[in-house]
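The protein record reproduced below.
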Amino acid sequence: QVQLVESGGGSVQAGHSLKLSCEASARPYRAFALGWHRQVPGKEREFVAVFSWNSGTTFYADSVQGRFIISRDNVTNTVYLQMNNLKVEDTAVYYCYAGTLGSPPEDWGEGTQVTVTS
Protein backbone atom coordinates (compact mmCIF):
# COMPACT_ATOMS: atom_id res chain seq x y z
CA GLN A 1 0.00 0.00 0.00
CA VAL A 2 1.19 3.51 -0.86
CA GLN A 3 0.77 6.39 1.55
CA LEU A 4 -0.09 9.66 -0.18
CA VAL A 5 0.26 13.11 1.38
CA GLU A 6 -1.41 16.00 -0.43
CA SER A 7 -1.00 19.72 -0.01
CA GLY A 8 -1.72 22.99 -1.78
CA GLY A 9 -5.48 23.36 -1.83
CA GLY A 10 -7.22 26.65 -1.09
CA SER A 11 -9.57 29.33 -2.33
CA VAL A 12 -8.86 31.61 -5.32
CA GLN A 13 -10.73 33.79 -7.72
CA ALA A 14 -11.51 32.62 -11.23
CA GLY A 15 -8.63 33.12 -13.62
CA HIS A 16 -6.00 32.60 -10.93
CA SER A 17 -3.74 29.61 -10.29
CA LEU A 18 -3.08 27.00 -7.62
CA LYS A 19 -0.53 24.22 -7.37
CA LEU A 20 -1.23 20.90 -5.66
CA SER A 21 1.38 18.40 -4.60
CA CYS A 22 1.24 14.75 -3.62
CA GLU A 23 4.13 12.78 -2.16
CA ALA A 24 4.05 9.00 -2.38
CA SER A 25 5.75 6.76 0.19
CA ALA A 26 6.82 4.21 -2.42
CA ARG A 27 6.49 3.13 -6.04
CA PRO A 28 5.52 -0.55 -5.72
CA TYR A 29 3.63 -1.06 -8.96
CA ARG A 30 5.31 -2.05 -12.21
CA ALA A 31 3.65 0.56 -14.43
CA PHE A 32 3.50 3.07 -11.60
CA ALA A 33 1.32 6.11 -12.06
CA LEU A 34 0.41 9.05 -9.85
CA GLY A 35 -2.52 11.23 -10.67
CA TRP A 36 -5.52 13.24 -9.58
CA HIS A 37 -9.25 12.82 -9.50
CA ARG A 38 -11.77 15.35 -8.21
CA GLN A 39 -15.23 15.16 -6.72
CA VAL A 40 -18.07 17.54 -5.96
CA PRO A 41 -20.95 16.66 -3.63
CA GLY A 42 -23.59 14.56 -5.33
CA LYS A 43 -21.39 13.58 -8.26
CA GLU A 44 -19.03 10.74 -8.99
CA ARG A 45 -15.30 11.17 -8.64
CA GLU A 46 -13.82 12.11 -12.02
CA PHE A 47 -10.40 11.76 -13.58
CA VAL A 48 -8.31 14.92 -13.91
CA ALA A 49 -4.73 13.99 -14.87
CA VAL A 50 -2.13 11.26 -14.49
CA PHE A 51 1.65 10.91 -14.82
CA SER A 52 3.12 7.61 -16.00
CA TRP A 53 6.38 7.18 -14.09
CA ASN A 54 8.14 4.82 -16.48
CA SER A 55 7.40 6.61 -19.74
CA GLY A 56 6.93 10.16 -18.53
CA THR A 57 3.66 10.28 -20.43
CA THR A 58 0.84 12.47 -19.15
CA PHE A 59 -2.89 12.31 -19.72
CA TYR A 60 -5.55 14.92 -19.02
CA ALA A 61 -9.32 15.17 -18.91
CA ASP A 62 -10.72 17.26 -21.75
CA SER A 63 -12.09 19.75 -19.22
CA VAL A 64 -8.59 20.69 -17.97
CA GLN A 65 -6.46 20.12 -21.08
CA GLY A 66 -4.43 23.24 -21.81
CA ARG A 67 -4.99 24.72 -18.33
CA PHE A 68 -3.56 22.10 -15.94
CA ILE A 69 -0.05 20.69 -16.02
CA ILE A 70 1.01 17.55 -14.17
CA SER A 71 4.69 17.06 -13.40
CA ARG A 72 6.88 15.04 -11.05
CA ASP A 73 9.93 15.00 -8.84
CA ASN A 74 11.53 11.59 -9.32
CA VAL A 75 13.70 11.90 -6.22
CA THR A 76 10.89 12.55 -3.75
CA ASN A 77 8.15 10.54 -5.54
CA THR A 78 6.07 13.68 -5.73
CA VAL A 79 3.59 14.66 -8.38
CA TYR A 80 2.42 18.23 -8.86
CA LEU A 81 -0.71 19.63 -10.47
CA GLN A 82 -0.31 23.19 -11.66
CA MET A 83 -3.81 24.57 -12.20
CA ASN A 84 -3.97 27.72 -14.29
CA ASN A 85 -6.88 29.88 -15.43
CA LEU A 86 -9.10 28.26 -12.84
CA LYS A 87 -12.85 28.26 -13.39
CA VAL A 88 -15.71 28.13 -10.89
CA GLU A 89 -16.52 24.64 -12.18
CA ASP A 90 -13.07 23.44 -11.08
CA THR A 91 -14.27 23.72 -7.48
CA ALA A 92 -14.01 20.25 -5.93
CA VAL A 93 -12.11 18.07 -3.52
CA TYR A 94 -9.01 16.89 -5.34
CA TYR A 95 -7.74 13.40 -4.54
CA CYS A 96 -4.29 12.12 -5.35
CA TYR A 97 -4.13 8.47 -6.36
CA ALA A 98 -1.50 5.84 -7.06
CA GLY A 99 -1.73 2.73 -9.14
CA THR A 100 -0.92 1.04 -12.39
CA LEU A 101 -1.44 3.02 -15.57
CA GLY A 102 -4.61 1.89 -17.30
CA SER A 103 -6.11 0.25 -14.22
CA PRO A 104 -8.35 1.58 -11.43
CA PRO A 105 -6.51 3.43 -8.66
CA GLU A 106 -5.03 1.33 -5.87
CA ASP A 107 -4.45 3.98 -3.23
CA TRP A 108 -5.98 7.34 -2.43
CA GLY A 109 -4.95 10.42 -0.54
CA GLU A 110 -7.29 12.13 1.90
CA GLY A 111 -8.20 14.91 -0.50
CA THR A 112 -7.66 18.65 -0.57
CA GLN A 113 -10.34 21.27 -1.17
CA VAL A 114 -10.03 23.65 -4.12
CA THR A 115 -12.57 26.48 -4.24
CA VAL A 116 -12.78 28.91 -7.15
CA THR A 117 -14.96 31.99 -6.72
CA SER A 118 -16.31 34.31 -9.38
In short: The chain has no helices and eleven strands. The radius of gyration is 13 Å.
